[in-house]
Backbone:
């Protein structure tokens, strides 16, 4: 399923949302606050999305949705706690699905998105893009590829850290284009962006939202996605440009402990549809450089499965 289909589903969310206060809660009537575990620290990107979701839950749920930060071990500490929680509807987890998936593939962790959790739904998606300095001679991906092939092993590229979805997506581009370049990992989006702007590298793989406010210093050449981003419609996808780059992103996904009753899962899924249809939630997401992208539990799981199948060969080739 491509991102355009995701957006169509998101547009259909109001119809689903209408069920959240009736059929869904007729069977599931939570009476205690619901803990939403975020396996990262407060103030980060995933935490910001969770707090936007919690604000929207004030009208979509009859009880508070409480964000609980449990950072550690690249998200595994919080995921382990969430997986071990009672499946009674009082504990869920929201995380960067792509990062969780890649951590599992790279480290073979005890908890993983497929065997340790029920997938409740997706509320958004973080995508990566290829950026160059504004004064770069590269006006297109073809320019970059031609130069890299003329100087194998000489041009430099960066990303937000080894094993990040930006890194794996970037390596997917390198494989698709047949390039040999120097990998220069950085720590986090801000540092990665600063290095690109400063010309320390020839190009970087960075979240598309990192370009906001830096348009005079950066040029975004292509997006790793099935469709153009609603916030940056001028940026083409790699597929549009003729490059078969695997779609590696980081869907913001809500999970539940295994064994949760179907009626609770359906109720929470309907609540997510309700929240993501709210104008206030869309505004909050735009302020974070993103847009709502709701998927129900089955579609969200299928998306992660497709990403697993795309990422596994890239990771295997790196070992």
Residues:
């Amino acid at each position: 399923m491509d991102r355009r289909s995701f957006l169509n589903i998101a547009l259909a969310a109001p119809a689903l949302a209408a069920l959240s206060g009736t059929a869904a809660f007729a069977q599931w009537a939570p009476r205690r606050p619901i803990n939403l575990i975020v396996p990262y620290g407060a103030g980060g990107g995933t935490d910001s999305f969770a707090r936007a979701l919690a604000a929207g839950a004030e009208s979509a749920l009859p009880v508070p949705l409480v964000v609980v930060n449990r950072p550690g071990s690249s998200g595994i500490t919080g995921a382990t706690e969430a997986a071990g929680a009672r499946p009674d509807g009082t504990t869920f987890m929201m995380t960067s699905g792509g990062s969780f998936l890649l951590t599992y593939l790279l480290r073979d962790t005890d908890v993983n998105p497929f065997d340790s959790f029920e997938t409740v739904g997706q509320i958004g998606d973080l995508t990566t893009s290829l950026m160059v300095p504004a004064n770069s001679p590269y006006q297109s991906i073809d320019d970059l590829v031609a130069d890299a092939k003329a100087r194998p092993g000489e041009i430099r590229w960066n990303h937000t850290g080894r094993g990040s979805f930006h890194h794996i997506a970037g390596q997917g581009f390198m494989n698709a284009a047949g390039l040999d370049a120097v990998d220069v990992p950085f720590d986090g989006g801000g540092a990665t962006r600063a290095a690109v702007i400063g010309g320390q590298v020839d190009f970087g793989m960075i979240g598309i939202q990192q370009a906001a406010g830096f348009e005079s210093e950066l040029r975004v050449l292509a997006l790793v996605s099935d469709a153009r981003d609603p916030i940056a419609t001028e940026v083409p996808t790699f597929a549009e440009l003729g490059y078969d780059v695997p779609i590696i992103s980081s869907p913001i996904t809500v999970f539940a402990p295994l064994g949760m009753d179907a009626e609770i899962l359906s109720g929470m899924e309907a609540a997510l549809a309700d929240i993501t249809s709210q104008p206030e939630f869309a505004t909050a997401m735009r302020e974070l450089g993103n847009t709502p992208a709701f998927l129900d539990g089955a579609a969200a799981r299928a998306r992660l499965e497709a990403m697993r199948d795309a990422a596994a060969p890239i990771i295997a080739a790196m070992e």
The longest helix spans residues 297-318. Residues 1-26 have pLDDT under 50 and may be disordered. The domain at 3-124+251-318 is CATH 3.40.190.150 (D-Maltodextrin-Binding Protein; domain 2). DSSP finds eleven helices and eleven strands in the chain.
